[in-house]
């Protein structure tokens, strides 16, 4: 008979409660008496609830947890996210007011048999062709038109277009907490004042003021940047990537809508500035706004000025310091880190939540029902390290393609700061577009078409002129591009406005 397995999660927030709920659901602890899951949450630690975004994978996660989409929209102040709009990343605003912007939508480019449409777009004259995302998917027009990605009567977590959400992190944590407790998780409140390590280098027990000594077979560290177990107690080092990704600070705040019925943006807006970028996220009752920057290129006062200029007036903002990096060994002995305790690169492309989802799913599927509790550690560490490295490549892509002339952006173009793996791909992509065979799915958070959207949104040149004869169906491709444009215009007419859909779902 398999032994009892006790799991203790240190820390709440999105990482702690999502992991708790996921494991409780996967292991079915309400009916399988061999498992217990306890989450210890410190009431003294707050959550930065200024507005966060997720990946489309969050829909499958919420559905797996048994959370209704309407309930999620209502309780997490959630709105629909159809991608990220990038403003001023290619070059700074011009004296005549000209600005460059492009969309990274969630919907994959329209695909046909054979070579698809991408080569035909690349072979069109650069000065007259439509922007890549506009040519390849209807989502560009839907998002630009302020329309929602679905109708209220369509099934939860489904619809004609791929989407994710923006949400209030505090309210999402409360929703996940309630669902985890429903699934059988025990909730304790209190603070850890000491973690004891045994002679073999594993966590022996943790000491709390409110509950005395707590022990478990597996400890999951969701204590945020503090990394109380994996970092402080076990000493698993953080591998910094600041030599590649320079941003290490953010100023964050919320701004209520002046008009409660104002339209809600259906994309994250990431606007570049001299030393980083600002995010602007539309929630139901406010916008979550922040200024991300490199302290080596911009001081805190100047960052505050940039944020105030974006807001239109001075506002109080919370300063968040972080070291961009990750732990190559997030699982050591009987302790595994999830969320910020395991690593954080930066807020661009909202990778934080998808890494929590990936970690929770891997722990659940690799969880040893018997035998050494650290049996999956080497595999987990290899997969998570590879995932962080691939995300670092993708994030760096946004910066190294910029033509802005400020020191921050010039430094980002320095080949010494570009990972070798990314440089090798960029050289290949000068002669062909990104392919699905460039990536290993089990360690990727982004597909090949995500790279296409960034590359061609920022005017990267893939020269196919020498292979023009290999693509003889230009007229058929032109008809397909026209169909996509027509479908996009029809979708704008048919789909509801974003705030209208939120009002219908949230009741």
Describe the structure.
The chain is an alpha+beta fold. It has a domain at 5-47 and 170-241 and 324-388: FAD/NAD(P)-binding domain, CATH 3.50.50.60. The chain has 16 helices and 22 strands. It has helices at residues 13-27, 57-65, 69-75, 118-122, 132-136, 139-144, 169-182, 228-233, 300-311, 351-366, 377-400, 407-413, 420-429, 448-457, 474-494, 498-506, and strands at residues 5-10, 35-41, 52-53, 79-81, 83-87, 101-105, 164-167, 186-189, 192-197, 203-208, 212-214, 218-221, 238-240, 249-256, 268-273, 276-282, 286-293, 318-321, 325-327, 331-332, 335-337, 343-344. The strands form five sheets. It has a seven-stranded mixed beta sheet with strand order 6-5-15-16-17-14-18. Strand 15 and strand 16 form a beta hairpin. The radius of gyration is 23 Å and the shape is globular. The mean pLDDT is 95.
List keywords for this structure.
alpha+beta, 507 residues, 22 strands
Quick structural overview:
The chain is an alpha+beta fold. It has helices at residues 13-27, 57-65, 69-75, 118-122, 132-136, 139-144, 169-182, 228-233, 300-311, 351-366, 377-400, 407-413, 420-429, 448-457, 474-494, 498-506; strands spanning 5-10, 35-41, 52-53, 79-81, 83-87, 101-105, 164-167, 186-189, 192-197, 203-208, 212-214, 218-221, 238-240, 249-256, 268-273, 276-282, 286-293, 318-321, 325-327, 331-332, 335-337, 343-344.
């Amino acid at each position: 008979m398999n032994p009892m397995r006790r799991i203790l999660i240190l820390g709440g927030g999105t990482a702690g409660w999502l992991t708790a709920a996921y494991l409780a659901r996967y292991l079915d602890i309400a009916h399988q008496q061999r498992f217990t899951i306890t989450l210890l949450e410190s009431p003294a630690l707050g959550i930065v609830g200024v507005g966060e975004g997720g990946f489309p994978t969050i829909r499958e996660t919420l559905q797996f947890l048994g959370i209704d989409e309407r309930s999620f929209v209502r309780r997490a102040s959630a709105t629909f996210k159809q991608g990220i709009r990038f403003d001023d990343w290619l070059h700074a605003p011009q004296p005549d007011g000209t600005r460059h912007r492009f969309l990274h939508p969630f919907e994959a480019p329209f695909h046909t048999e054979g070579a698809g449409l991408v080569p035909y777009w690349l072979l069109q004259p650069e000065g007259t062709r439509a922007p890549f995302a506009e040519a390849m998917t209807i989502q560009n027009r839907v998002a630009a038109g302020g329309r929602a990605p679905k109708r209220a009567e369509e099934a939860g977590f489904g619809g004609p277009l791929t989407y994710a959400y923006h949400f209030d992190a505090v309210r999402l944590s409360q929703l996940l907490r309630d669902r985890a407790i429903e699934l059988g998780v025990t909730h304790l409140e209190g603070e850890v004042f000491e973690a004891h390590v045994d002679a073999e280098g594993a966590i022996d027990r943790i000491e709390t003021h409110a509950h005395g000594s707590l022990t478990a077979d597996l400890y999951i560290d969701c204590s945020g940047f503090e990394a109380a177990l994996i970092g402080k107690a076990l000493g698993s080092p953080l591998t910094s990537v600041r030599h590649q990704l320079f941003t290490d600070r953010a100023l964050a705040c919320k701004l209520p809508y002046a008009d409660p019925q104002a339209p809600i943006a259906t994309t994250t807006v990431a606007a570049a500035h001299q030393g980083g970028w600002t995010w602007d996220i539309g929630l139901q009752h406010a916008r979550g706004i922040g200024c991300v920057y490199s302290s080596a290129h911009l001081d805190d006062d100047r960052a505050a000025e940039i944020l105030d200029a974006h807001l239109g007036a001075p506002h109080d903002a919370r300063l968040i310091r972080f070291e961009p990096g990750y732990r190559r060994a997030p699982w050591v002995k009987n302790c595994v880190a999830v969320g910020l305790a395991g690593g954080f690169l930066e807020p661009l492309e909202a990778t934080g939540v998808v890494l929590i989802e990936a970690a929770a799913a891997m722990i659940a599927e690799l969880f040893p029902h018997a035998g050494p509790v650290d049996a999956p550690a080497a595999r987990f560490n290899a997969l998570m390290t590879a995932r962080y490295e691939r995300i670092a490549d993708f994030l760096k892509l946004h910066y190294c393609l910029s033509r802005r002339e400020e020191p921050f952006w010039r430094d980002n173009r320095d080949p010494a700061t570009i990972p070798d793996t990314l440089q090798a791909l960029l050289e290949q992509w000068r002669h062909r577009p990104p392919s699905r065979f460039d990536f290993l799915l089990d360690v990727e958070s982004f597909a090949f078409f995500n790279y296409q959207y960034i590359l061609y949104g920022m005017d990267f040149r893939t020269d196919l002129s020498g292979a023009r004869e290999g693509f003889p169906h230009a007229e058929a491709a032109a008809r397909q591009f026209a169909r996509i444009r027509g479908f996009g215009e029809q979708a704008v007419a048919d789909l509801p406005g974003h705030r209208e859909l939120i009002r219908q779902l949230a009741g």
